[in-house]
Design a protein that fits this description.
The protein is of the alpha/beta class. It contains seven helices and five strands; from the N terminus they run E-H-H-E-H-H-E-H-H-E-H-E. Helix content is 56%, strand content 12%.
Length: 140
């Protein structure tokens, strides 16, 4: 069994029709049914914000966006609820060490803690993940 962490850039490229990247589907195909798929709690705020922006920019209707949640459900993501002062200090350290936002640091911290492979299309996060010695899958 493998552990994987997914960031919102990668998931968006899997489920938003006009942003689908064919290579993301090939990359995701390596994930097996028994593998664990992790996201930080932050992921749900980020994906909701992306969906809201798609509606505001009139790229999709509200009802079309609601249908995207069935795609998300199919991933069977395990949401990590790590929080608090110690966690915030870890994130700040990663920000300081690798020049990341706290948002990106949340994905790196989770991948590192879970000994997981990180799926991302974010170039800064990919670079930081490689520097940290965490496995990353990205087409960048």
């Amino acid at each position: 069994m493998m552990n994987y962490v997914f960031d919102v850039s990668f998931v968006g490229a899997l489920i938003i029709p006009d942003e689908i990247e064919p290579h993301s589907q090939k990359m995701y195909a390596r994930v097996k049914n028994e593998d664990e798929r992790h996201v930080p709690l932050l992921f749900w705020y980020e994906i909701s914000n992306i969906f809201n922006n798609l509606i505001l920019r009139k790229r999709y209707t509200y009802n079309e966006i609601i249908d995207f949640f069935s795609y998300l459900d199919a991933f069977c993501f395990l949401t990590d609820f790590e929080s608090g002062i110690i966690y915030s200090r870890k994130l700040l350290q990663l920000c300081n060490d690798y020049g990341l936002s706290a948002y990106d640091a949340a994905y790196l911290e989770l991948a590192d803690r879970k000994k997981a492979v990180l799926f991302t299309f974010d170039s800064n996060l990919k670079i930081a993940t490689e520097k940290k010695g965490v496995n990353v899958l990205s087409s960048l």
